[in-house]
Amino acid sequence: MHSPQLNHTIQGQGPAILLIHGLFGSLSNLGLLARDLVQDHTVISVDLRNHGHSFHSNSMNYSVMADDLNQLLVDLNISSAMVIGHSMGGKAAMALCDIAADKVSKLIVLDMAPVAYQERRHDNVFAGLKAVIDEKPQSRKQALDCLAQHIEIDGVRQFLAKSLYSKDGYLQWLFNVEGIINSYQHIQDWAEISPFQGGTLFLKGADSDYLMPEHQAAIQKQFPNSKAHIIANTGHWLHAEKPLEVVRSIRRFINK
């Protein structure tokens, strides 16, 4: 018995590319990349479980996320795809390489390392999400004000607000807040995978501390055929901050 199919969109024609968003995101997050890649590829954008319009589940770790992605490729009859994942989506993409290496022709990971992270970076976000649930805001402005009590950076508040929808007269979250909070340790975590021999590109935001020199050994062990490229003057949201540079790096890599 496998999980319901992930919500997804398919655009364009040509070799398949699977785009996977990060925590609190949805399939529109990598839209700036999709808009370029769709010119000569079939681009499949997914909502991971507990996100966007995909199903909600109490179980959320990289093993089940990889299974979801693999099942979608099977359902769509795609035997080979280039896989691009940001942040948590990067880890889901790396986990997919462990169970379906033959289906991943090339892997591109945006600002994430195949390691367990110790620091809890999202407690303020969780507090903001819960505040919105308690407050039941009727307008987007009310929701943003609510988030502002916990989250300093306006860009983060605007990003989260993309996942609000109106139901029963007030704004609610598309993602499964409780499921994500309860699974946060699994999302931080990582189980080492067998070496993936396919070509792999790690793209790092220069100002981000998710992908660091001390992660190099773990990367080389699990992704022996990988290279890294740094996008200058950008943080963890490199694809949103510098989409042209990120697309250029991706195209250079996939056209080799």
TrEMBL record:
Keyword Phosphoprotein: no
A Pfam family that the UniProt record links to this protein: Abhydrolase_1
Keyword Protein biosynthesis: no
Superkingdom, taxonomy of origin: Bacteria
Keywords recorded for this protein, A-Z: Hydrolase
Residues of the AB hydrolase-1 domain: 15-243
InterPro entries named among the record's database cross-references: AB_hydrolase_1, AB_hydrolase_fold
The protein's name in its UniProt record: Acyl-CoA esterase
Record organism: Vibrio algivorus
